[in-house]
Structures are given as C-alpha cells and as structure tokens.
Amino acid sequence: MPPEVVEGYAVHELEFLPEDYIRARFQRRIGFIRSWLLLAIGMAMVLWSLQMGTWVRDARAELQALRGTGSAMEPDVEKIRTMRAEARSYNRRIDLVRALHPTISASEVVADLVDLLPQDVGVETLDLDYPEAADADRATLRLRGTAPDETTVTQTAAALDASPRFEHAMLVESKRVSERTGGGRAFVITANVMPTPAGKEQ
Q1: CA 14, CA 22: separation in Å to the nearest integer?
Q2: Model confidence pLDDT, tens digit, residues 78-91
Q3: In this structure, is residue 57 part of a structural domain?
C-alpha cells in the first residue's frame, strides 16, 4: 500500500509496527546514550586523577625545595643566634664595668660642695646612692649637716639647686639642736648629682 500523503509529506505507516519493537528500539537508544555518558564520566575521572597526580608531585617537589632552602639557611640562623648571645653577654659586662667604675665619684662631689656650702655649715655625713648600673652617670646625694639658723639651711638648699652640678635639691628635715650641744639646726638635704660639666673635667 502506498504511503498516505498529507499536505505534501509522505507519512510512513510506523504506527502499524509492533509496540514491543518500538519499545526495544527506544531502550537500545537510551542504553547507547547511557553508555556514552558513562564513558565520558570515566574518561573525565581518569584525566582528573592524572591531573591530581601531577599537582601532588609538584607540591612535593616544592616542599622538598623549601626544606632544602631551610637546611641551607640553618648555619646563618645559628650564626645570628650566636651573635645575639655574644651581644647580650657584652652588654652585661659593660653594665658591670659601669657599676664598678661610676662616672660620679665621692671626691668630686665633696670638692663641689666645699665651694657651694655657706661658711657656717658643718657636714656630718654625705651619702651617694647609685640607683642602677644603667644610670651610673647619675647619683642621689643625701647631705646631713648642721647650720646656725634656718636661714642658713635655706641658703644651703638654694645653693645646691642653683648649681649645674646638682638638681632638684630638697630640704627633707630641719630641726633645732639642743643648746647643750651647741645649738643651731640639724638638717638633711637630698639632691640629684649630675655628671661633671665638660669644662671642669681634668
């Protein structure tokens, strides 16, 4: 039977094919497409595995190179550590030397006081306190003495404070002395002792 013509197109009589044949043909096509998809996925996984292997090898090579660089730098790092330890030891020795040989001596302080104290002032004790080795060019003076009156005590503190050799002179104590011991006033003055001015160094 010739095919039926509809609007110029030939329509084959596929509708008369058995239903089982049509279903089997459809299943074969689906299976073919599924096989290609599985093959493509498998190939992609293989390529991904190869790429991952390449990345892992490159990462291991870089890590090994970094380890080699670290090993090459270990001698330099050890030298730096040794130099730092030697520098700390040297600084401790310098501090010790400064502590044993302060730049401010008691004899220099006494000589400066002789020129500053009023004539009627008597010195009983003179103490120098060096706070720390790092401040060996500084000292604290504690002067204990006697004066005929309060005016002379005030003049003594003012003379120390006006001198470039001393600063922050402070009257700590001033009290009357018994008449049986000569009268007058006993005082205590503290001041910061500065290094010897450059012009007075011998």
Answers
A1: 9
A2: 788 888 888 888 77
A3: yes
- Chain-centroid distance of CA 30 in Å reads 71
181 occurs within a structural domain: yes
Tokens 């190869």 sit on residue: 50
Report if residue 119 sits inside a domain.
yes
**Residue 64 shares a structural domain with residue 146:** no
Nearest partner of 129 among 142, 119, 120, 116, judged by Cα: 142
136 and 66 inside one domain: no
Q: Which domain holds residue 68?
A: 1-76
Same domain for 139 and 70 = no
pLDDT of residue 132: 64
Q: What is the pTM of this model?
A: 0.46
Q: How far is CA 34 from the centre of its chain?
A: 66
Q: H/E element holding 96?
A: helix 19-100
pLDDT digits (tens, 9 = 90+) for 41-76: 888 888 888 888 888 888 887 777 776 665 666 777
Q: How many CB atoms are located within 10 Å of the residue 199 CB?
A: 6
pLDDT at 73: 65
Domain total in the chain: 2
Residues 114, 192, single domain; the answer is yes
**Contact status, residue 129 vs residue 140, Cβ threshold 8 Å:** yes
